[in-house]
């Protein structure tokens, strides 16, 4: 397919590379920043522009992969002279209808993208949505050229998916960060000692559901250990509160099942 | 070394196997439950007993790997006739001094152990402590026969290590559990779609510290997305509160650095 890539950040870069390697033709890259546009265009062997009015008028899909805040304005400025074209955005938390094109859709690859870290797109689940059935099929077909896992999901349910991803990724990672802080302040143990535990915690989920895999004082409701832990956190009341709420919530989850 | 194993639960089983495979002689297994004692003893090719008075009197190390609640009472009942022997417990959260033997110590392998899931002990960090310098060296030597990562750590700092492990393991896992609940209730997406994201979140930490790896709305302080997420959680005020506190804490962590 002929694809125009609007954006040259982490997601646009990773997605662009995956599409290019799958044999699609990236017709053009647009970015406000010349440096970013140029860098990505050279990887994707295609022209670039920094001016919305110079974005090509026709392609099979226009993929708008920019910051949520810039999405709506940028898309609107592209709408003139491109009616009838298929525009999709890549933002998990945004409704499809932030775009006002007749042929609008969403192409959401659910992953955490970091600069300078290549990702294997084939294992990233992609969630697609579009107004027209034909466009849904086109996006599914496109997604399947780069990913083994493709779902059709509407905007309402995708909001919850995105929220679920925040828990799995950002909040779990913050638990790791709080752990790193504790280690730094007590005993001078380097954080990497936690990696086998973290890898095992993540690895278990390939054979168990999270609630089946739960261990530790909260799921046993071992108030003796929990009280001692709360005591250790008395200098940081916010972290203490997080400990308390997460422990109660683990207990609730256990009682539910 | 000649080792007596007091306990036959998850940790005792995993540790016993690792010690056995490293060439140590497990002299005897004790468990209150005959079934457990028998099962583990057959794996470790050694005799077993269910009576504390029948536990052997001499060995290089007595490893007491039982539930925290049972530890002190059980250890006391073994103390008679075994003065001069080295007794260690394996509980991360317990002080060395819950044992009252003159030669007491701790041997804490930091990992989450599940039944029926073999673990590779060599990557599990072990934390040792003892009253006598000779015993510290003995425990370090023993630990190095089964693990590549061995630290000496006193009881006070080990409390924080154990707390840090609760954040890395139990609390991160609970974030996964909350995520699974959200997916179950909205859009009927199976939890396994989250595995690539979870694996990447854990995998990143092999090259980045958690706070360097953080992404998502809270670290960007994107109140637009966060407010929408809080709205989605309005039916579950406890989870909403967890979302709010973790987001604030991510923001605090970001401001600190």
Keywords:
10 helices; N-(1-d-carboxylethyl)-l-norvaline Dehydrogenase, domain 2; homodimer; eight-stranded mixed β-sheet; 257 residues; 48% helix; Rossmann fold; alpha/beta
Query: What is the CATH top level name of the largest domain in chain A?
Result: Alpha Beta
Compute the separation of the termini of chain A in Å.
Answer: 48 Å
* Protein chains sharing the most extensive interface: A-B, 94 and 94 residues
Secondary structure category of chain A = alpha/beta
Q: Count the helices of chain A. How many?
A: 10
Task: Work out the number of β strands of chain A.
Answer: 8
Question: Biggest sheet of chain A, in brief?
Answer: 8 strands, mixed
Task: Write down the secondary-structure element order of chain A.
Answer: EHEHEEHEEEHEHHHHHH
Mean pLDDT of chain A: 95
Give the count of structural domains of chain A: 2
The name of the CATH superfamily of the largest domain in chain A reads NAD(P)-binding Rossmann-like Domain
CATH architecture of the largest domain in chain A: 3-Layer(aba) Sandwich
Note the beta-strand portion of chain A.
5-15%
Shape of chain A: elongated
User: What is the oligomer described by this structure?
Assistant: homodimer
What does it look like?
The structure is a homodimer of 257-residue chains. Chain A is an alpha/beta fold. Chain A folds into two domains: 2-153, NAD(P)-binding Rossmann-like Domain (Rossmann fold); 159-256, ProC-like, C-terminal domain (N-(1-d-carboxylethyl)-l-norvaline Dehydrogenase, domain 2). Chain A is 48% helix and 13% strand. Chain A is built from ten helices and eight strands. In chain A, strands 3-2-1-4-5-6-7-8 form an eight-stranded mixed beta sheet, covered by helices on one side. In chain A, helix 4 links the parallel strand 7 and strand 8 (150-152). In chain A, helix 9 packs antiparallel against helix 10. The longest helix of chain A has 31 residues, at 155-185. The first copy, chain A, is elongated. Chain A starts with a strand and ends with a helix. The model of chain A has no long low-confidence stretch (mean pLDDT 95). Chains A and B meet through helix 5, helix 6, helix 7, helix 8 and helix 9 of A and helix 5, helix 6, helix 7, helix 8 and helix 9 of B.
């Amino acid at each position: 397919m002929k694809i125009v890539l609007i954006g040259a950040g982490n997601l646009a870069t990773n997605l662009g590379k995956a599409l290019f390697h799958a044999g699609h033709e990236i017709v053009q890259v647009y970015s406000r920043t010349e440096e970013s546009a140029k860098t990505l265009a050279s990887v994707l062997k295609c022209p670039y522009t920094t001016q919305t009015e110079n974005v090509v008028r026709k392609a099979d899909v226009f993929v708008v992969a920019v910051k949520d805040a810039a999405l709506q304005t940028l898309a609107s400025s592209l709408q003139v002279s491109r009616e009838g074209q298929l525009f999709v955005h890549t933002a998990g938390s945004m409704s499809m209808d932030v775009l006002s094109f007749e042929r609008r859709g969403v192409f959401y690859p659910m992953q955490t993208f970091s600069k300078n870290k290549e990702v294997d797109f084939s294992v990233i689940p992609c969630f697609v949505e579009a107004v027209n059935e034909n466009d849904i099929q086109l996006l599914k077909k496109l997604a399947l050229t780069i990913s083994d896992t493709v779902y059709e999901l509407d905007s309402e349910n995708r909001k919850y998916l995105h929220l679920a991803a925040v828990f799995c990724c950002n909040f779990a990672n913050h638990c790791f960060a709080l752990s790193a802080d504790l280690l730094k302040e007590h005993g001078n143990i380097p954080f990497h000692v936690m990696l086998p535990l973290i890898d095992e915690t993540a690895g278990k989920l390939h054979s168990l559901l999270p609630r089946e895999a739960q261990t530790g004082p909260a799921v046993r409701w071992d108030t003796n250990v929990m009280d001692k832990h709360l005591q250790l956190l008395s200098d940081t009341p916010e972290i203490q509160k997080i400990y308390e709420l997460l422990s109660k919530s683990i207990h609730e989850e256990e009682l539910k099942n």
